[in-house]
Every structure is written in structure tokens, then in C-alpha cells.
Amino acid sequence: MISTDLSGLNAERADVTVIGSGPAGITLALECARLGKSVLLLESGGNAASEEAQSLSLATICDRNTHDDMAIAVARRFGGTSNLWGARCQRLDPIDFAQRPGVVEAKWPITRDDILPFYDIACEYASCGKPVFASAIENLKLEDSVVDPCRLERFSNRPAFQTAHKESLSSSRALDVRLNATVVDFELDESGRIEKLVVATPDRKRTIIPVKTAIIACGGLESTRLLLAIQRKHPDMFGGLDGPLGRYYMGHVIGEIADIVFSTEEIDRAYDFFIDGNGSYARRRMILSDKVILDDRLLNCAFWPVVPPVSDSRHGSSILSLVYLAFAVGPIGRALVAEAIRIRHVPPGVATLPHIRNILLDIPHALAYLPGFFNRRYFAEMRLPGFFIRNPGRRYGLSYHQEQFPDPASRVQLNGEADMFGLPRLTIDLKFNRTNADALVRSHERLEEWLVQSRLGALRYRFPKEELADAVLAQASHGTHQIGTARMGLDRRTAVVDGDLRTFDSSNLYVVSSAVMPTSGQANPTLSVVALAARLAQHLASVG
């Protein structure tokens, strides 16, 4: 059942109460229901985006040059941030769980083998085909390579979870979904257990809901915000005011400081989007081996080729200029790609006339491209996740996606402002330090060595080598992955939740979001968060 009416909720406790209906919340709710639990799923927003609901997540951002606006980092509506998701799906790597003294001190309380079995069902919920994450490149044989050139990312065919799982969400007798239901407070007993939730509706009426087990699944920032609100009333909880809660805030280090030039047609073709026969589009990424990362004290990083900056009309491409003009019109651009991606392609001060000139000079090419693109993007069962246009020179931008160093000074805190329900707002201070930049430059150097030695290509840097680290930091900006602020660990001194995602200080309160990940890895986090949600459902079913 899906309803906006909260009547009857104060009478009976569900086995499991899930707060948040994004990828983690929907997966957890459906899995718990499938495993025999009664589930109440609470979502702050409604079916559609609402300015009033979205305003609940407004925050103070210390540096807007390094953090995305909350409008593209949080979605207060049914389906949560799956409505903003770029659809990328990858698994965490073995190196992400390894001990790396002096580089990354964070320790996972679980192993990769603990989460690995749950990627199968995570791929089902994410609608990204079978869990196949490697694909050999034809005629490419490399032994003991410093780079894995065959790692796959998969792409969701139906990114919006509430749409992909509409039938199950509506028909499950064990699942009760309530929209426009914002959790604004928690009532605890003397031991710290959650006894009741205080839930507010848009008309500002409040309902008290008794709970047996509560799970916060509101995305990284909003999950942390609720925990901080509990801590404000109970200062000794979650490691105390100087503890780990809200600290170690991470995303990924992204950008481009070099171009890549491929040597052969085969390697050039290998990095285009393709349907691999396993149920979705996929694409290869180049990733340094675990041995290289350990030996060279690097951070985990992925590389892949991208088209030249579409905003720079000097590319002379009618198709790229057409893409830029589409991105520049907000509603059209948002229909093409995730908003976080769109805004990075439309910097201020770009003249439109040169782009129009590019299109007019090559109208036939542009018109020939459009029908196939729109058919594959919007009407095919397996949707094309983006655009990549190969060129005769085989030269492309080299995009990087590096894990961020976990820094306790990079953090989120409550401030003195409050939303319309009285819940304190966040101050967000995401920091990128020199460690991130220096490691990334060294990773480029190792990739370059491998390309040249393997005769597969070369790099062409866009900046003098002595300026590369500064160029990395100048581009460093994130905010959609929201990792580390309620991390899992071995004890309450260093972490907020244990390996089962149960908070150390409240025996019936769990958290499942990207915030619980102690390291960020090179992979986008959504698929791993969904896997953690499926694992948590199994745990909850096993404990009765």
C-alpha cells in the first residue's frame, strides 16, 4: 500500500520501520517484506518533486566551489536520489578493504567476501543486468599488468527505484509506504533504544509512531543529520561530540588534467558504450592494480575517455555543439543526463553563436545522429546511459574518479538554523587536501608508463607538470556521493555503526547509506549501498 494518510500508524508497531525511500530504503523494505517482516516505509516527500519538501534539505555550504548544491545532492521525493542518479553501477574493489597504514587508516569491520554475495540481488534491484564486471578486450593480452584495462561499469536500465519496483511496492501485503511523512524527532528509552518516532506532515501536524526496529536510509547527508539531531539531545551518543559522527566526509576526486590518445582502432573501440549480452549497457574503465596502489602508496582510481569539453566550440563538432545547447536549456539537459553531470558541462560565459555556427556548417551529420541517439536513450529496453563520440584522431579527455582521503576535518555539523519542522540544518565543509592531488598525479604517471610500454597510447597533459596537483585541486568538487560521516567500524570511539550497520549506542537503530562506508574507493557507491541494504535485510530476518 502507498498512501499519504498517516492514520492508524500510532496503534501498531511494524517489525521494521525504514526512514527514506531511495535505493537503500526501497531495497531494504522490499527485501524485509520478502523475508517475512512487516515493514513501514516513511518518505518525507511525495510522488513528485516539491519545492516545499526540497527546502527541508537546505544547508549552509562552506565552499560552493567544492560542493554541489543541495538541489542536486538530495531529493525529497518518492525514490529519493535515484531520481537524480547517473545510473552507474560498480562493485567495491579488494583494495578498498585492505589495510593501508600511513595512507588510508580507516578499517572496515567486514570483508569484501561479506558483501560480495549480495551484489547479485543488488544488480536486480538496480536493473543493471547480471553482476558481470569485467570484459576482455579483443586481441589484447597483457600479463602482470599494472593497469586493469577491462574493468566494467554497468548502467541501470531503470534508475528511478520507485518506478522500477512500482508493482512490488504497491502490491506487497507486508509493506506499508507512507509519503509526505517527515521524521523530525526520536524518543529514546533510558538504554538508548528508539521507542517512538515523531513524524510531521506538510500541514505541520505530528504523529507519534511506535517502533520495534528503526533504520535510517536517507542518503549520506540526511542520515547523518538525523543522527546529529539525536546526538544534540543526547551528547554522549555516537562517540560524543568529538567522536566520528559527521567527520571523514568524502565524495570522489573528479576532473580532467590530460588527454588520452589511443594507438589502435581496437583499443579506441573498446572504451565506447556497448551492450555486453548480460542485460544492460556497460563500459570499460582503466584501474591501477591493487599491487601498484599498495607499493606506490596511491589512492584507488579509475580512468576512462570522454569527449572534448562540449562547451568549447573550438571542437568544431556539430554533434557536440548540439549536445551543449541541449544541456544549456535546463529542462532539456536534465532529461538527458543527471543534473550533477549537466552543470559541469555548462560553465558561465559561454557564447552560443559559435555553437550554432558549428551546427549550421554540418547539419546533415547532426541530423543523422539524433534519431539513433534518442531511440537508444529513451525508447530502447536497455537505455543508452550517455554519449561518447569517437574521432579519427582517437584523442579524448581522460576523466578520473579517485577515492578521497578520509580527513576528520572534512565534516558536517548542525548549525543554528532549522527547517519548517524545527529540525536543525547542516553546515557542510567538504575538504580536498594535497594528499588527494599528489596521489592522483602519480596515478596518471603510472597509467602513462603502462600505455607507452604496452604500445596502447599516450597522455597529453593540459598543464605543466609542476602545476598538475594545483589543477586537480582547482577542479575538485563533489557532493552527490556523501561517504564516511556515519562510518562502520569496530568500536564507538572510531565509528558510528558496527558491521551489521547497527549503531553502537542504540540497539534497535540501524543506518544504511553511503555514510557508513569508511573508504570511498574508485567505484560510484550506489550499487554497494544497495548490496549493504540487502545484507542488512538478511541480518534483520535472522535476529527475529
From TrEMBL:
<feature type="domain" description="Glucose-methanol-choline oxidoreductase C-terminal">
    <location>
        <begin position="406"/>
        <end position="533"/>
    </location>
</feature>
<protein>
    <submittedName>
        <fullName>Choline dehydrogenase</fullName>
    </submittedName>
</protein>
<comment type="similarity">
    <text>Belongs to the GMC oxidoreductase family.</text>
</comment>
<keyword id="KW-0285">Flavoprotein</keyword>
<keyword id="KW-0274">FAD</keyword>
<dbReference type="InterPro" id="IPR051473">
    <property type="entry name" value="P2Ox-like"/>
</dbReference>
<dbReference type="Pfam" id="PF05199">
    <property type="entry name" value="GMC_oxred_C"/>
</dbReference>
<dbReference type="Pfam" id="PF01266">
    <property type="entry name" value="DAO"/>
</dbReference>
<dbReference type="InterPro" id="IPR007867">
    <property type="entry name" value="GMC_OxRtase_C"/>
</dbReference>
<dbReference type="InterPro" id="IPR006076">
    <property type="entry name" value="FAD-dep_OxRdtase"/>
</dbReference>
<feature type="domain" description="FAD dependent oxidoreductase">
    <location>
        <begin position="15"/>
        <end position="227"/>
    </location>
</feature>
<dbReference type="GO" id="GO:0016614">
    <property type="term" value="F:oxidoreductase activity, acting on CH-OH group of donors"/>
</dbReference>
<keyword id="KW-0560">Oxidoreductase</keyword>
<dbReference type="InterPro" id="IPR036188">
    <property type="entry name" value="FAD/NAD-bd_sf"/>
</dbReference>
